[in-house]
């Protein structure tokens, strides 16, 4: 083959043009013995000389006519066998196809940054294009309109071992002369046939003897042919082959075998009938493709890049009208084998059959130096002087003929021709070899070969004018092309010269109908335009060269056009992606699936995540089809998974088809897999952030009247987690025998909001609950069957178990001897449905459990063809606030199973959700030891000590805000944390008490009183139970159990109290009480309220039972008899208070309460005995009266404690006991019992329960406020006022208050 370029080198634009047009073509022919000398190295002579065909020193090319000398650097000779012929049509196409299909991989890539998007990655070099370009130029048919592909000289090679080297050289010379002077001319073509340069080379085999023996034969050779045309070199100087030396020839060996199988044949087979019509893979002929008449009459070889081949379609059309021919062009190996009888054997002359052969094993370093020196000497001594002489002759001939007119035909043509290019099937003018126009063109080609680009441009410019005048459009286009290249190589390229190339391409393509030369000109123009940063112009030229009948060429040029748009000064990313898609499509039609796959992948980088959903779907689907054809099933599944994303705009029917193909591809991949592992599926979608893990004890069963402790569940909100942590800290500190310096709350629930870098701890025998969200991201409904968890378990002994092997042959064979797990039979997810799945897993041994993912059978509801797959739980990294901290991940799914421990089961009396404000419940708390160890510590904490009373065996203490009224606390010291624990924590069982513990299977009952808040709305009471674990238990020190009581508080009764001066003279203090039923007729429930008793808690005043007056507004006699307030009714009570003289010495708290509480009985209601008695310590009256440390903030400060100690808590408290009947549309539901509390601080002010804005009732114009304990001060003030002014003032008081003043007014 002719090697014009070197694809292994990354050539610049000028180097590429030099390798194509500035490499003089030298023919060679060898004697038999000379070839044998070369074959010792597994090379022929052309291959032997090829690595050394470039001169290493500077030569000079002189033009005697112009008086110009040009230095020639790096001139490379293109030496080929004179018997070489371009390959025929089918073989040339096979070579072009293989040049692309054999170069599918690339090592280096480069990244191109895109604004606001991830950078795209493209190959750094395009080896397939470079290789195709080299083959394209190499197999190009030599044409008469240019001389760069014509032989300039010939090397006649003989051996020193020839019996008569001179005679052998004469014999070979005659053969060459016949080839140069044959009529009509045949291949090869020569630049000069009359005076061709024939040089002679004698090879001496150094392994056979010293070179001095060959000197005599060489002298005879020089005597016969001249000193400057004869050369002698010695090769094969080694006595034995050296197999370890560097192979300099391997990169020049081309693996284009006649019988070689195309690499991508299997992968390129069409998969659909449409692809069969688009990508033919066989050639079916009923008659010969080329008519016999043409074969018999034409001596030329038909070639895809030859001028004669351009007329082949017209010839074939005529032939097909007479004979029925089916012709489909392809690169099929089988078709080529059928046509081998017509292949020119000279095409594959002496080509190697194996690439693993060692080349040049007999050559020493001196031999390779000899080859280099030969090329140097041949070029300087023979070739350049010969070319200088030819150039001089051409200049002289052209000058002499300038004044001579051309033929009559040519002159007439210049007069009548329109000089406009038109469509012509043949050249308008036939030039002889000695015509001035061809000599001018030949002169320009010789100048161009040897680097004199200035004179070359002038010659081309003159030639193009002559050819244009003669309407010789092919010659004209060639001159334009070379003129543009000469200007580029000279460095004087401008817009005009670029237009030359544009006009040349257009003329080749539209006028001459020579697409092969148009393609060549486009490739070279691309290099020139890219060098000038005119990428868009290059892209337009490349795109124009696409055609329907040349898929491979179109694909390569479209790919280069895409890169041009990408590298433009203002990149066109969408055009790059669009042309990449077009290139991928043409690669597919050409059978180059690997390159098609690559181009679609490059386009996908730009189009994905840009909002172009339909375009993205098209590319992803095409990539999947290409990947399936290339047996890249993993990538096919990835692309098909992308088509099933939530943002897809495809119809339900289309998505059903995608799902069907996805399942079928996944099934194929599983059948081909040898690992036996489950494949990851993309449906349904697993929301990784929704995964929650709960490790806690088992709740007891619910009974008819009792419910188990609500504990913590997977749906718990994390917003109030700080409250539970605060209660836990109080409990831990209360139960600990020494202060805990660094408290760390225990974790039972793990989620994305509460990650864990430590393993969750689970007690053996207790379940592990897991919740996660599944979503159907597509419109068709999907079915997920036999859903279970995928796990690994490691015993403490190190033995490892997993359920991966349970999923075989399409069935699930569960083995629950190690781990028991929930199996959900079926989950059907409709369009875009999200569903939270709860599962439970339990181990049978102590060790480590790792939950890997979810396993199930996925299928479409329509097709119901299931396939096993898994959804893995991802390791979610945990962000650390510490700079340069080691990256860690969430370990919530890696659970450590601890030995058995204590377990507590707690039940509560079930309470109604809908309650009345102030309603009190008596609840039984059943505490049962369900474990195997005794429990010695049980503590209960609540965030609402005001609404919860837990009866225990321990002595109850007054709240600190009340205790200061009972005893002197001036000299006592208080701690805020300890006081908080005393308020919020209740001790049930303490290990510090002797013989006090809860044994296994033992039950303890505790009574609790719960009062609903007075404020309307939803309310929850949090209860946390603490109990200990056995001594020396690993990892944990105690266990916790949660319970939360939820209630919705409704309006019931409102109580208003006002403290007055009943008698100005006697100083009696009066109390005005008004109770009103707030229930309305439009409320959901009907509530009737009965009042039982009311109490006054005060150390200064008590009730006077003889002076209590009732003013009611009962609507019915029955309500009046029962003292029952119907909806919106009220009852007013007026009573006189007596001053008490209690002893300051208090015998005890109970005695203190007894002395300060006075009562008035309204009616007897027996069920009120369940209400906590007021004379017991810790009753709701005292809890409501007391001031508590705040729980609504996470940290209690010293200021909070000081405000509690300094608070003035000395006021009068009024308590009302009541009973209410609740009815729903006349149907009785239940009775409710409760208490209301009103705390009075000042005279003449209204106080309410439930609390609201207080109102001050002014008896006079004074705005001074008086405490209820400052009655005397107020009376003295009033007395002075009346003595100074006897005039009555306007009484603005309420009617109820005026009635209490009547005795005073009558006096």
UniProtKB/TrEMBL annotation:
Classification via Pfam families: Ig_TPPC8_1st, Ig_TPPC8_2nd, Ig_TPPC8_3rd, TRAPPC-Trs85
Domain TPPC8 third Ig-like positions: 1045-1239
Domain TPPC8 first Ig-like stretches: 719-916
InterPro entries, A to Z: Ig_TPPC8_1st, Ig_TPPC8_2nd, Ig_TPPC8_3rd, TRAPP_III_complex_Trs85
A single Gene Ontology CC term: TRAPPIII protein complex
Domain TPPC8 second Ig-like: 918-1041
PANTHER family per the UniProt record, alphabetical: TRAFFICKING PROTEIN PARTICLE COMPLEX SUBUNIT 8, TRANSPORT PROTEIN TRAPP
Name this protein carries in UniProt: Trafficking protein particle complex subunit 8
Organism for this UniProt entry: Polypedilum vanderplanki
């Amino acid at each position: 083959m002719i090697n014009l370029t070197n694809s292994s080198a990354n050539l610049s634009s000028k180097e590429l043009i030099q390798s194509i047009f500035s490499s003089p073509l030298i023919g060679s022919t060898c004697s038999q013995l000379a070839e044998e000398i070369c074959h010792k190295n597994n090379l022929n002579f052309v291959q032997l000389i090829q690595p050394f065909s470039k001169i290493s020193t500077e030569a000079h090319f002189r033009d005697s006519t112009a008086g110009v000398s040009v230095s020639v650097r790096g001139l490379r000779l293109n030496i080929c066998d004179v018997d070489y012929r371009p390959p025929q049509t089918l073989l040339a196409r096979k070579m072009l196809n293989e040049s692309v299909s054999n170069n599918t991989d690339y090592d280096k890539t480069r990244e191109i940054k895109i604004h606001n998007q991830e950078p795209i990655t493209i190959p750094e070099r395009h080896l397939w294009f470079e290789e195709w370009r080299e083959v394209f130029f190499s197999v190009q048919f030599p044409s008469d309109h240019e001389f760069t592909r014509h032989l300039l000289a010939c090397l006649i090679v003989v051996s020193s071992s020839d019996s008569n080297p001179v005679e052998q050289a004469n014999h070979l010379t005659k053969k060459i002369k016949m080839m140069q002077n044959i009529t009509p001319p045949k291949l090869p073509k020569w630049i000069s046939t009359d005076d061709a340069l024939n040089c002679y080379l004698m090879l001496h085999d150094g392994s056979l003897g010293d070179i001095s023996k060959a000197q005599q034969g060489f002298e005879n050779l020089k005597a016969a042919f001249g000193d400057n045309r004869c050369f002698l070199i010695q090769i094969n100087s080694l006595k034995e082959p050296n197999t370890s030396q560097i192979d300099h020839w391997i990169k020049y060996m081309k693996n284009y075998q006649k019988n070689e199988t195309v690499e991508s044949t299997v992968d390129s087979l069409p998969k659909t009938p449409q692809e069969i019509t688009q990508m033919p893979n066989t050639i079916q002929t009923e008659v010969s493709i080329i008519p016999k008449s043409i074969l018999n009459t034409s001596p030329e070889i038909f070639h895809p890049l030859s001028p004669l081949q351009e007329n082949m379609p017209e010839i074939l059309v005529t032939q097909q009208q007479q004979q029925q021919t089916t012709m489909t062009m392809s690169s099929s190996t089988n078709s080529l084998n059928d046509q081998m009888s017509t292949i020119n054997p000279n095409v594959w002359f002496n080509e190697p059959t194996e690439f693993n052969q060692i080349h040049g094993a007999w050559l020493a370093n001196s031999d390779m130096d000899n080859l280099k020196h030969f090329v140097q000497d041949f070029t300087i001594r023979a070739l350049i002087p010969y070319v200088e002489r030819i150039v001089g002759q051409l200049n002289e001939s052209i000058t002499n003929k300038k004044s001579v007119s051309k033929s009559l035909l040519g002159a007439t043509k210049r007069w009548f021709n329109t000089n406009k290019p038109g469509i012509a099937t043949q050249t308008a003018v036939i030039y002889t070899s000695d015509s001035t126009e061809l000599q001018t063109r030949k002169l320009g080609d010789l100048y161009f070969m040897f680097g004199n680009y200035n004179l070359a441009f002038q010659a081309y410019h003159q030639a193009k004018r002559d050819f244009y005048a003669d309407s010789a459009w092919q010659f004209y286009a060639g001159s334009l092309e070379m003129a543009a290249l000469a200007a580029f190589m000279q460095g004087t390229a401008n817009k005009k010269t670029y237009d030359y190339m544009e006009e040349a391409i257009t003329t080749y393509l539209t006028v001459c109908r020579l697409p092969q030369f148009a393609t060549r000109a486009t490739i070279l123009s691309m290099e020139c335009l890219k060098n000038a940063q005119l990428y868009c112009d290059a892209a337009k030229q490349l795109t124009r060269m696409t055609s329907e009948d040349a898929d491979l060429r179109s694909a390569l040029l479209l790919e280069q056009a895409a890169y041009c748009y990408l590298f433009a000064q203002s990149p066109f990313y969408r055009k790059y992606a669009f042309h990449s898609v077009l290139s991928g499509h043409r690669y597919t039609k050409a059978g180059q699936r690997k390159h098609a796959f690559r181009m679609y992948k490059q386009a996908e980088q730009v189009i994905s995540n840009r909002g172009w959903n339909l375009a993205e779907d098209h590319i992803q689907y095409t990539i999947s089809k290409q990947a399936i054809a290339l047996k890249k099933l993993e990538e096919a599944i990835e692309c098909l998974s992308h088509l099933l994303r939530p943002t897809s705009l495809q119809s339900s029917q289309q998505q059903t088809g995608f799902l069907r193909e996805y399942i079928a591809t996944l099934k194929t991949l599983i059948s081909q897999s040898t690992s036996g592992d489950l494949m990851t599926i993309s449906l349904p979608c697993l929301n990784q952030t929704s995964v929650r893990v709960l490790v806690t004890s088992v709740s007891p069963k619910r009974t008819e009247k009792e419910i188990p402790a609500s504990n913590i569940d997977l749906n718990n909100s994390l917003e109030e987690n700080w409250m539970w942590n605060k209660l836990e800290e109080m409990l831990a500190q209360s139960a600990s025998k020494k202060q805990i310096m660094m408290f760390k709350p225990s974790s039972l629930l793990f989620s994305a909001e509460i990650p864990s870098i430590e393993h969750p701890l689970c007690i053996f025998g207790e379940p592990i609950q897991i919740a996660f969200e599944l979503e159907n991201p597509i419109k068709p409904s999907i079915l997920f069957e036999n859903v279970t968890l995928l796990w690994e378990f490691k015993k403490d002994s190190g033995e490892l178990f997993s359920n991966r092997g349970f999923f075989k042959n399409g069935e699930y064979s569960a083995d629950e001897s190690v781990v028991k797990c929930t199996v959900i039979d079926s989950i059907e997810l409709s369009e875009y449905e999200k569903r939270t799945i709860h599962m439970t897993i339990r181990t049978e041994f102590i060790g480590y459990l790792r939950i890997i993912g979810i396993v199930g059978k996925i299928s479409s509801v329509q097709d119901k063809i299931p396939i096993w797959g898994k959804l893995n739980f991802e390791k979610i990294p945990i962000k650390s606030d510490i700079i340069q901290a080691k990256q860690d991940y969430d370990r919530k799914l890696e659970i450590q199973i601890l030995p058995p421990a204590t377990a507590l089961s707690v039940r509560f009396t079930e309470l109604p959700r809908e309650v009345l404000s102030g309603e009190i419940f008596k609840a039984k708390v059943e505490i049962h030891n369900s474990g195997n160890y005794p429990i010695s510590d049980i503590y209960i904490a609540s965030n609402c000590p005001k609404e919860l009373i837990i009866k225990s065996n321990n002595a109850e203490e007054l709240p600190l805000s009340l205790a200061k009224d009972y005893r002197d606390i001036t000299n006592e010291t208080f701690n805020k944390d300890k006081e908080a624990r005393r308020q919020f924590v209740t001790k049930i069982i303490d290990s510090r008490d002797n013989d006090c513990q809860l044994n296994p299977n033992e039950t303890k009952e505790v009574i609790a009183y719960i009062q609903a808040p007075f404020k309307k709305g939803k309310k929850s009471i949090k209860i946390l139970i603490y109990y200990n674990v056995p001594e020396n238990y690993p990892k944990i020190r105690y266990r916790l159990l949660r319970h939360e009581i939820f209630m919705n508080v409704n309006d019931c009764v409102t109580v208003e109290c006002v403290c007055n001066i009943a008698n100005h003279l006697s100083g009696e203090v009066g109390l005005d009480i008004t109770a009103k039923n707030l229930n309305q007729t439009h409320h959901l429930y009907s509530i009737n309220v009965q009042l039982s008793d009311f109490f006054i808690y005060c150390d200064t005043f008590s009730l006077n039972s003889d002076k209590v007056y009732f003013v009611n507004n009962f609507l019915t006699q029955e309500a009046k008899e029962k003292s029952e307030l119907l909806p919106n009714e009220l009852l007013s009570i007026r009573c006189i208070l007596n001053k008490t003289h209690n002893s300051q010495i208090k015998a005890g708290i109970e005695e203190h309460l007894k002395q300060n509480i006075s009562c008035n009985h309204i009616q007897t209601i027996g069920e009120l005995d369940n209400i906590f008695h007021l004379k017991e310590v810790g009753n709701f009256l005292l809890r409501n009266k007391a001031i508590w440390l705040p729980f609504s903030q996470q940290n209690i400060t010293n200021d909070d404690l000081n405000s509690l100690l300094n608070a003035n808590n000395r006021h009068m408290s009024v308590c009302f006991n009541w009973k209410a009947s609740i009815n729903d549309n006349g149907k009785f539901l239940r009775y409710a019992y409760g208490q209301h509390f009103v705390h009075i601080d000042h005279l003449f002010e209204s106080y309410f329960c439930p609390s609201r804005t207080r109102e001050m009732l002014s008896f006079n114009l004074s705005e001074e406020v008086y405490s209820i304990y400052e009655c005397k001060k107020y009376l003295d003030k009033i007395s002075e006022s009346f003595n100074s002014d006897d005039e009555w003032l306007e009484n603005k008081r309420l009617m109820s208050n005026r009635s209490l003043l009547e005795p005073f007014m009558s006096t």
